[in-house]
Design brief:
Elements lengths: L2 H13 L26 E6 L4 H4 L11 H10 L4 E5 L9 H13 L3 E6 L9 H21 L3 E4 L10 H21 L3 E5 L8 H8 L7 E6 L9 H8 L3 E6 L2 E4 L2 E4 L2 H10 L4 E5 L7 H15 L1
Parallel strand pairs: 1-2, 1-10, 2-3, 3-4, 4-5, 5-6, 6-7, 7-10
Antiparallel strand pairs: 8-9
C-alpha cells in the first residue's frame, strides 16, 4: 500500500465513517452551480453498459465481447470516446491489463471518456461504507492510469426509520471523503441521479450542495428521473452542476415510457454551459447491435 493509500485508510479509521450520522444534516451548503460559458461544446461517447448483454458471462459461458472488443466497436462507429464500466473488467485487474487496455485505446484513437462503479454512500453500516470507499479508491487508481478524469458514482437508498436529512448528510460526508482521495489523482467524482435518495433533483442537490470539494459534481443521466411528470424540468435543475453526462433514448413519466427528445436534452446541457462527453447509455429493448448505430447517427447529427 503506497503512502497516500495508507493515509486514506488511516483517515477512515480515525474519523469514523459513522460520525456523520450525528450531524443531523447541518453541514454547510458548499457547492454552487458551475460557472462556465454557454453554449457548451459536446462530444459523443458510448457507455459499455449499453452492451451489457454481450459483456456479461451467460450460462457459465464467457462473455461474447471484451472491453477490447467494445473499444473496437466504438472506433468502428466513428466515436472518439468510450465509457468503460467497472462491471466488465476482469475479476483481477493488474498493471499489465491496464497498460494493454490503455495502449489498445490509444492505437484505436479512442479516449476513455469516463468510468463507472457501484457504491452505496448512504449506508449507516460503517464497515460496509468503508468497503465501498476502499472500492472507490481502488477504481480511482485504475481509471487514473487509463487516462480518464471522471468516474460516475452512486448515492444510495433511503434508510428506514431515519430522517432523509440525516441520510443525505452522511452520503455527502462520504462523497467528500472519496473526493479527498480522488483529488490526489487529479480525478473527479460525478454523483448520478440514480433512484434512491437521488430519484428527484431535490434529493440529489441536497447531497451535492453539502460537498466541499472541487473534485465533485453531478453525473447527468437523462433517463433516470422516473417519478415525476416533468423529467426535463428535473434535468434543468441538475445540469448546472454536471461534470459528466449520459443520455438514454427513453424517458419515463410516472412509469410511462416515451422516446427521449434528444435535441431538448442536449439543449439543456448546452444552455447550462456543460462542455464534455455525452455517453449514449442504451437501455431500450431492441438489440443494441441493431439499435445503437441508428441512435449514434441521430446523436452525431444533433451534436
Amino acid at each position: 500500500m503506497n503512502p497516500s493509500r495508507r493515509q486514506f485508510t488511516k483517515q477512515l479509521t480515525g474519523l469514523g465513517i459513522g460520525l456523520v450520522a450525528g450531524m443531523g444534516g447541518h453541514a454547510s451548503m458548499a457547492m454552487d452551480p458551475l460557472e462556465r460559458p454557454a453554449p457548451g461544446r459536446l462530444k459523443l461517447s458510448l457507455a459499455a453498459y449499453s452492451m451489457r448483454q454481450y459483456l456479461t458471462p451467460q450460462n457459465g459461458q464467457p462473455p461474447q465481447m471484451t472491453l477490447f472488443d467494445f473499444v473496437d466497436y466504438c472506433a468502428d462507429q466513428g466515436l472518439f470516446g468510450a465509457e468503460l464500466t467497472s462491471y466488465y473488467f476482469p475479476d483481477e485487474v493488474d498493471d499489465d491489463y491496464l497498460f494493454k487496455l490503455k495502449r489498445h485505446c490509444h492505437l484505436r484513437g479512442v479516449t476513455v471518456s469516463g468510468g463507472a462503479i457501484r457504491n452505496d454512500f448512504c449506508n449507516p453500516d460503517s464497515e460496509k461504507v468503508a468497503q465501498d470507499l476502499e472500492h472507490t479508491r481502488r477504481w480511482i487508481d485504475y481509471y487514473a492510469r487509463l487516462g480518464t478524469s471522471v468516474i460516475r458514482i452512486f448515492a444510495g437508498r433511503e434508510i428506514a426509520g431515519e430522517s432523509l436529512e440525516t441520510t443525505l448528510a452522511r452520503c455527502a460526508a462520504n462523497c467528500e471523503r472519496a473526493c479527498e482521495y480522488a483529488a490526489q489523482y487529479q480525478m473527479l467524482l460525478a454523483l448520478e441521479n440514480h433512484g434512491g435518495v437521488t430519484a428527484r433533483a431535490e434529493g440529489l442537490l441536497g447531497i451535492v450542495r453539502q460537498v466541499q470539494s472541487p473534485a465533485f459534481g453531478v453525473n447527468f443521466d437523462s433517463g433516470n428521473f422516473r417519478s415525476t411528470d416533468d423529467p426535463y424540468a428535473e434535468l434543468e435543475q441538475i445540469a448546472p452542476y454536471a461534470i459528466n453526462a449520459q443520455i438514454k433514448v427513453e424517458m419515463h413519466r410516472q412509469g410511462r415510457t416515451e422516446e427521449t427528445d434528444l435535441a431538448r436534452v442536449l439543449d439543456i446541457l448546452r444552455r447550462a454551459g456543460y462542455s464534455g462527453w455525452v455517453a449514449l447509455e442504451y437501455e431500450a429493448s431492441e438489440d443494441p447491435l441493431t439499435a445503437i448505430p441508428r441512435w449514434l447517427r441521430r446523436l452525431q447529427e444533433l451534436i
